[in-house]
Amino acid sequence: MSPTMEIPKLSLLNDKHDHTFVVPIKRINEGHDVQRFLVSKAHHDTMVFVLQLNRAMFPRQLSGSDDSEVRWRTWEINSQTLPLSHAVRQLQGLLDHLNATIDVVPPDPGPRRFGNVAFRRWYEVVEARLPSLLQDFLPEQILSFSQPSNVSVQAELQSYLLGAFGSAQRLDYGTGHELAFLAFLGCIWKLGGFEVSSGGDEERAIVLGLIEPYLQLIRRLIKTYTLEPAGSHGVWGLDDHSFLPYLFGSAQYGPAISETDETPVEGSLVNAADPADVTKRAIVERERGRNMYFSAIGFIYDVKKGPFWEHSPMLYDISGVRSGWAKINKGMIKMYVAEVLAKFPVVQHFYFGSLFSWDEDPNAAPPPPSVHTSNQPSTSQPTNAASNTIPSRLRNVAHEGQRPANGPVSAPPPKSFVGTAAPWAKQPRVQSPTTAFPSQTDQRNISQTPRLPPNFNPRPVATAQSGGEAATGMPPPTRAPWAKPPGS
User: Fold this and answer.
1) Residues ≥6 apart with Cβ < 8 Å to 58
2) Which residues pair with residue 351 across a beta bridge?
3) What are the Cα distances from residue 190, in Å, to 9, 194, 330, 351, 370?
4) Residue pair 259/199 in contact by the 8 Å Cβ criterion
5) φ, ψ dihedrals at 461, nearest 5°
6) Cβ distance 453 to 310 under 8 Å?
7) pLDDT tens, position by position, for the chain (488 residues)?
């Protein structure tokens, strides 16, 4: 029998009896603080925990009794075969209680352009109840921690959990709040609140038994109180609110592995849904109850209208990757480092305590230069270097695929915008308003571009030179739907 491959896991706290808890505080105040965060212990622990959970979500090979037949086992949302530890079930009760609180605080009536102010009342109710809820639902081994200081373990964990539901001040929610919930679970892991299993059962229970129900709670909050996206790139980003479901969901569809295999970077599970199926509503509805990736796609369909390629161009771009879900998963890891952990608008509200520490990681290598942290906002001094921190085994991976071909877009990016494409896509071109549509030469070769918007059909337009007759050239300017045609 081959030995089990050693996968780094988030380390447990050693000094359980002498550990001093602190109330987490804000450390990232300016753009250059992000670079300091990238070499902190908190950043290291976050990535270790993410990779640990991610690997557990890949299907596992199962050998037959005579070792002649190899099958696989998968884990889906609401799977009845997934073992849930006592700690996971306890925390599920906490999420259920928070979900029920929404019924106690209904949204204010009347149309609103921005978030519903009733969310502030929900937030106040949760904040008032949270100390007692943590006392009731945290694992007993955490509550039994000795407290040499005046700060309790509940006080440190409460800061992360309360920060996981959005901003009551700005009435928004984004990936920074999602990161806070991940840190909350990471704190519980470091304190020994979860069971440590060699086969990844506890990690899968954390993802499917806690993170997915948390995301369902968040989606209900967003729809109930119309929370705005926080730190989002809008149409130029992956998703307005979340990232983790795309990471773990792509792993669910990855190829089956054994405990001795390395995490795959190409391939898909046999009979898995195709990445291009994200544009097919019927398949999305079928798969959203099984897979986290499609569950997130389904929520996009719930809250957005119009062609998928138009309101979610990056996800549409990713759907053209032909090397399988493992390739997408690999790219998602790199994107999480670059677009979540290395972006000031996302991590500026992350708080640092004794468990996710601001202290510098002595083993952290100097991060390589990158555009992802260049031009970070600063109030006192500019940042000179641009960097991001990616585990060494994730660097220099060639990703394939391209962005969708040049076609109608909602609006061109601002001139100062550095376009962010999927990591496996070619470097995008930031187009000016005068080059937003393909030229005559581009139209001749347009069929060679892999991810065109559906039914794209460049058509001749009338020009002044042609006396109003149709001629090949730029499409007519976009008018409001209610505008009358010229000359009417």
Assistant:
1) 251, 252, 254, 255, 256, 257, 263, 264
2) 26
3) 10, 9, 26, 17, 31
4) yes
5) -130, 160
6) yes
7) 455 566 789 999 876 667 889 999 999 999 899 999 999 999 999 999 999 999 999 999 987 544 555 588 999 998 888 999 999 999 999 999 999 999 999 999 877 778 899 999 999 999 999 999 999 999 988 887 777 778 889 999 999 999 999 999 999 999 999 999 999 999 999 999 998 877 899 999 999 999 999 999 999 999 999 999 987 666 667 888 999 999 999 999 999 999 889 999 999 999 899 999 999 999 999 999 999 999 999 999 999 999 998 899 999 999 999 999 999 999 999 999 999 999 999 999 999 999 999 999 998 877 666 555 555 665 544 433 333 444 443 333 333 333 343 333 344 444 443 444 555 544 443 343 333 333 443 333 333 344 666 665 554 444 444 444 444 444 455 444 444 555 55
Six-digit token string for 361: 């990681």
Place of tokens 């100390």: 131
Contact yes or no for 93/290 (Cβ under 8 A):
no
Written as six digits, the tokens of 164 are 């996981």
Length of the chain: 488
Q: Tell how many helices (H) and how many strands (E) occur in the chain.
A: 17, 8
The two three-digit tokens of residue 119, written as one number: 């969310």
